[in-house]
Amino acid sequence: MAEKSRILVVDDEEALRTVLSSELVNAGYEVDTASDGDDAISVVQNKRFNLVLLDIKMPKVDGFEVLKFIKKNLPTTKVIMLTGFADLKNAIESKKHGAEDFVSKPYDLVDLLTTIERVLTE
Question: pTM of the full predicted structure?
């Protein structure tokens, strides 16, 4: 049996974190969550993840800052940005800082799972 991929879900909306993490667990992933950017940085320093699902707009430390931290310190960790503000500027900014992809909220679960699979196998 292949080792489960580990995913960190980072979002300041508790309901979204809870629903998304349970969907990912049901899909066979090992999942941790973080409620903001500060929390996310501390979690990734202590535990290895294959993928981080990262909200862009969060209080304190935003998703772009977390993305830069991950890409500088944990370059093998893949990142998919989640944004309720699906504009071209955020997409370009995400890619510029090294995100593998981005998904707009509200997302379609099947599309999100497909994106996760594709990013993990790239």
Answer: 0.94
